[in-house]
Write a structure and sequence with these properties.
Length: 664
Amino acid sequence: MIEMKLSNKKKMRNTLFIAFLIIICLMGRIGYIQFIQGGELSTLAYQQQTLDRSINPKRGTIYDTTGKNALAVSSTVETVTVNPGNISEENKEKVAQTLANIFELDYETVLKKVKKRSSIETIVKKVDKEKTDELRVWMEQNNITTGINIDEDTKRYYPYNTLASQIIGFCGSDNQGLDGIEAKYDDELKGEKGAIQRHIDAKGGEIGHEGENYVPAVDGNDLVLTIDLTIQSIAEKYLKEACIDNECTDGGNIVIMNPKNGDILAMATYPSYNLNEPYEAYTDELKGIWDSMQQDEKTKNLQAVWRNKAIADTYEPGSVFKLITASAAIEEGLVTDIDKEGQFSCTGGIEVAGVRIKCWRYYRPHGSESLRQGLMNSCNPVFIGLGQQLGVTKYYEYLEKFKLLEKTCIDLPGEAGSIFLAKEKAGPVELATISFGQRFEITPIQLVTAVSAIANGGTSVTPRVVKQIINSETKEVEEIPVKTNGTVISKETSEKVLSMMESVVSEGTGKNAKVAGYRIGGKTGTSEDGVNTNKYVTSFCGVAPIDDPQVVVLVTLYNPTGEGGHQGGGVAAPVGGQIFSEILPYLEVSQGNQDEVEQVEQVQTPDIIGKTIEESEKIIKENGLELIIQNETENLDKENTIIKNQTPQAGIVVNKGNKVYIEY
């Protein structure tokens, strides 16, 4: 009996001890949860009990340099979501059927979302308000007040479709910038998301009666570019013509820069693409085979057209680069009188380290020349000789001064750097080829920047595409400063080189770039696109007006295979002349040579946007102009088709006979 009592006491003691241990463990666990995990669990509980529907901010507008022409805007659209837990079982099928019908969606897919055990499901994004208004009417008629959400959203839209496509870039479905300015300045443009918050239970039902908490979105900032809509339109018009007429298999680009401040007034690439449909076929040829192409082929083609060749692709500049050699030689005192007869002599070629390098006109040598004549004739031996006198070390010093050994730091994504042989490895032959523009590669933007330093009196300026950022809330304007990089050459050297460039256009290889009444300088170039490819790059770089340069124009055409050949003077220089003939009057540049002005009647382009093509053809003809319909289809209804865009814009002064391009 006594032993039984002792045994029971022992059991009770053990039980109490175990219970005590359990209580200690529970208290420890509670303490751990409360003090160690408390913050994290509170956050998780809030997230579980709070339904957040995000509100996308309106992305900032991108304007051209005038601040009036919007190149990229965000229009208001709406997004539809559902809270499955707030839709009664008897209404789920009816709701799914209605959503599928209004928004043209698959019924089974919508039904799965409506029946899903989750707090929120997205049905459709970025739809026009007329569609969501139809849904609102249906909800009111069927007395459905919860479970379906219609929230304001934004959609990116590009009013000019293909204009400046490689500069502006485009956005993804989440409004994030994916290319061009849209990507580079995404942080400025995107704004901050807002939210609609509501407390819910595990099934998605509403907790309490406090309703929704609205946190407004903050719109993105606006950008003002240096790009001029009119000048960009002119550049794209003549680039497209040149690439088609000369059968340029690899396209082309044009860069127009203000040499005084680095502003890029235009940067055109052909072919271009529609910013509103960046993933679609962009040429008639591709449209015919697009559906049959593999996805990797589509991606390859799209990435090629998205690429801004003016900053991302390198090439051999050819004889345009002789401007750099001439500048260095004059600055170093190797040539003091650019008109000194007999200072140079062309015998058809020159011997360098046992290698004979020919002049392009080796079959009929230029003979005795001054430096001016050497540049006018684009004579290789003249510039090889200057390169030899400068030497590798000094020549590379000028490459550094002209910022040709580094990127320009233009405010666009994807800029490539130049490809030069290391100074230590450059021998006599390599120096010789560099001096007349071959066997190295630079980007078009690097060349334009270097020539701009010659044009503005000798100062290196960083090119830019954005000049202002406008705060969406305060409307405060932030000016993007002009960046200079020091003096490259003296003003005296600059004036001598500009004088020679004027002679190239007035009498030399660039005479096809002449514009009556204006003092224009330039240099042509032709180079091989790679070694033994039988492909060529032809170019022309022009400056105007010579007495006070306001624009530098670089035309680069890749592999012209048409009847006009592939020489810069015959193919690229005429394009430069066409561009100057329109942009100089537009910029109100005074005509320096009044005696040369041809008495060509000029007219203002009429406003035909919003009119039918049939009406516009009559108006354009009455003004002595020619109407060109871009992407015209065989069954185009001219009587009822409305014009959306025109180039040049209304009010621009042009010569009679000029073409007006339209999009519908």
